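The methods section describes the discrete structure representation at length, but only in general terms. What matters is that the chain and its backbone geometry are given together, residue for residue. For illustration, here is how one protein appears when written out as sequence plus structure tokens:
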Amino acid sequence: MSTNADLWLRRWLRRIGAPSSAAPILELGCGDGRDTAYLLGKGYRVIATELTHERLAACARRAPGAVLLQHDLRRPLPFADRSLPAVIASLCLHYFEWEQTLAIVTDIRRCLTGGGLLLCRLNSTQDVNFGASGHDQIAPSTYQVGARRKRFFDVIALDALFDTGWQCLSAQEMTIHRYRQPKVVWEVVLAKRPVALPRPISPD
């Protein structure tokens, strides 16, 4: 793994806002706690989730101040509606079937406060070093990469995923150097917005 700090969240701190003791940030798929530790160092409270105890243990070693939660993203998030100011999801939303991915994003939106932020990174269709070519295709833009299915996104897929209830603040395709080989990702920042309700039909 590269030793590059990959401080992708740094430029979004102003948008996230000042730390609040009453409002933790939720981090999905925290991995080894790299982003978790960065946010804690900036004064934010963080609830960090992962699928396995082993990954949570790795996060705990790197970011001992985080609240740790074992959670499978295929299940609803255990948080109340409109209770979170921001959700971080770096490279953890592209392992699922399309309908499940839509459901996960919808559930994230449910948990966000009005105007709350989703900051995420997703595999790009240009990410050839990490599975976007040379593997068996099992669904549109989805490949079997070793033991895992991995989805890769283009602009059309991003538009479809965040079509309802989101204001896109930024969507940039970029190369990052977090790993041994360059990885191409989409970095997307969105704000929750109300879904417009249909206007009632006036009686004649």
Q: What stands out?
A: The first strand starts at residue 25 and ends at 28.
